[in-house]
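Q&A FORM
Asked by: J.P.
Topic: structure of DUF1254 domain-containing protein

PROVIDED:
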Amino acid sequence: MNTRILGTDLPRRALMGTAGGLALARPVFAQEDATAIAKDAWIYAYAMLMSYGTMYRQTVDRNAPEYVGGFNTFRHYAQFFTSANHDVVTPNNDTPYSWAWLDLRAEPMVLSVPAVEADRYYVCHYFDLFTHNFAIFGTRTTGREAGNFLFAGPGWNGTVPPGIRQVFRPETQIIGTVTRTALHRPDDIPALRAIQAGYRLQPLSAFTGTAAPPPAPAVDWLPWDERRALGPDFVSYLNLLLRFYPDIHPSETALFQRFARIGIGGGRPFDLAALPEPQREAVTQGAAQGAAALRQAISTTTSSLGLFGTREDLGNDYMKRAVAAAMGLYGLSKEEAVYVGDDKDGDHRPLDGAQRYTLRFERENLPPASIFWSATVYGMPDRFLVANPINRYSLGDRSGLKAGPDGSVTIYLQASSPGPEREANWLPVPASGGFNVVLRMYGPSTAVQTGQWHMPPITRAG
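REPLIED BY: S.T.
REPLY: Here is the structure written out as tokens.
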């Protein structure tokens, strides 16, 4: 691999070996220390790397089916998701997505949202390059009226014009959104499209009718290669992304001084192949140890509680951030939605498509969600929706579920139909192999947010 400087939009001091105002030491390798540093850095980077894979496909790779058209533009999905959608793991089949990535280097961007009817739910969810949820607003918090919201990158000190309802200031110069709008049923698609068309992004200069500033320099993006990005060359991807984090958060100053010892820093070139063998082996071992630690953390995680939120919500717990990205990239914060689920039955056996299961909610223990709830099946280990003969991917309180005489609701989890009388409550699973079930609750109760409410165990039939 040839060493190269990726782009030229950084200050010269960054290209000479600084980042965020920190002087970066020359890489100094004591192999044991370097391995530990690489492990911690890999865990720190994991969410950013997986997010970059999504961003690259959506904004750079014009041949990717996920391509949205570049930066600062929406691509709307106005249909229920199916097994063909692979934009992110554990995709949401309740609220079709409106995707966009904003480049705030040249100037701020303004989002305009339309007014919506009384029974329409939407949420504008914005995240930075770390996947922190720095802005979540919509019908639950800001109401149903039309409005304008401004997103300003680090270092912007301009004047906020009249007509802006709220200003958001993320830590990174590039941010993303998964805006979610409720789709009630197939014949609701025209109404959904009308609302999505009302989500409008424009530069601040266009909003105010003033002259636009010079465009930001082009970026030499690294082609997305998951094997490379999650291996010992993760540093190359991380250094690229850190270019868009110009002002290191005070809580991370010491961390980046430590990371600098193995060549990590915004805009720094990193040539894995050119490293001496002991140094290359230290980084390789650290990346492998980080991946093993993440797999262990994932194996004990069954709820989204504490995984998604702001930097302050997560408390700089980078393992939580990594687990969240692995299990459900771009999840909402708990005030908006909570996700719980399992890939094992009540006897702790892995769920297997060759078996039949039920998920039963007693009348007094239905999911406590003020907006709506749903259950979705995902195949393992990829965590994508599973193809099935009736093209049904989720069931919930908007699905016409049939309650029993005692008011309980039972969902049948199996590959074949449970029979005509139960088919309304049938949620298909793969014909073989593992799967998991995720229960989403929008507008979750306090009991859900605090972990006091628990999803009933999944019961194996027979």
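FOLLOW-UP: The chain has two domains: 1-335, 336-460.
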